[in-house]
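=== RUN LOG ===
request id: a7f3
mode: sequence -> structure
chains: 1
length: 479
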Amino acid sequence: MSARDADFIAAIGLETHVQLRTRTKLFCGCPNRFGAEPNTLVCPVCLGLPGSLPVANREAIRLTARAGWMLGGRVQRVSRFDRKSYFYPDMPKNFQISQYDLPLCVGGGLDIETNGARKTIRLTRIHLEEDVGKCLHFEASSGLDFNRAGTPLMEIVTEPDLASPDEALAFLLALKQILVYGGISDCNLEQGNLRCDVNCSVRPAGAAVLGVKTEIKNMNTFKGVHRALSYEIRRQIETLRAGGTICQETRRWDDAAGRTETMRTKEYAHDYRYFPEPDLLPVELDEALLEAWRAELPELPAARRERFVRDYGLPDYDAGVLTADPAVADYFEAAVRAGAPPKAASNWVMTEVLRAIGERGIEIGAVRVTPEALAGLLGMLERRRINGPTAKEVFAILFEQGGDPETIVREHGLDQVSDAGAVEDWAARAIEMHPNVAADFRAGKKPALQFLVGQVMKLSRGKADPRLAAEALRRRLEG
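=== RESULT ===
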């Protein structure tokens, strides 16, 4: 919002839908898998055929409880599934099994940071429901793929505590990190693992009562959420300034046109005719089971960042980069356990490892440079058996074919040359080959020395000890 809009306050709430990382669907044994041929992962239960009965997926309930705890909420001992009645072409039963008045998790919150300011976004509830199928539209026809129907879907509902598109984006990024850390969801936006509905209203500054909200449905990119909110806040402010009124309605985001458009007037809870699902018993969780699940909770991203700073002496920036992805953080810690100096391991993971996997478009789990190999490579560098350029050469070989750095150095003859006589000879040749650069150094141009060190490295085919080369050059030039 611009300074001109400071007389209005935005209130934003998110309903984030997260597909859970289960092996099977929520109420049947069909595989929960993306990318299969349409309508091949279906059965009478997820197709809603007469006489079929649902059975709740225990793992989906466990993962939802884990999400509740990791987000500071309370897991209810008793929850219940309900029928939410409405019709869409991709809804095979013409109702959705969801949770209404007795959700699995209540309360909680998530800390975000924008522009250096920290803020807690309160959560209302987390409930579990089944996903719907998918409509496919072609040039002259449409199709329905029910592979996704019945996939376990966790809905995380916030209070209207977000006040800007930047805060909404920060919330979604922080939420995604926690869910990935917990193994709760892959959060792959391209596969539809994470989608959200955005509720937005504006009111005059100083007004206590929230304005009339609109809902923007089925946002599936974080950038889209930010753009849609920026437009919708501006639209509502301009409407109110012109003396108009905001209608409670559901809108869609047209990304190509960069605007929201009316879909329908907003439904209310009674429009869905909720009633307890007659084919499912209430979910009752005893304390022993909850304690067992609670004992399996992983370390939160924020706690891991703090530990990396405290235990490994890393700067805040390094800790933030390394812990952004739990697999990267695991790789770094494995390298340190194998003997790598923490700061050196951090530098190499953030530069060489992340650069290489980014160029190849692979995950860190597919990297052939094991943490132990990286630790061995850094150990050789620390002992000055190899120099920096050679270490990068060895890393490139490891990345392509794997193996042991000691073996690669030995087989390729890459040991650093620390023989003083050999280094002195290369230094003398470098000065002889570049008299003008030597004269520049003697005239006070200190950077000239680095050029000559580079020439020594070139003459030695990268094997000379750069420190010894600089010392030999300096002795000859200053002597």
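=== NOTES ===
The CA atoms of residues 145 and 458 lie 61 Å apart.
The chain has a mean pLDDT of 91.
=== END ===
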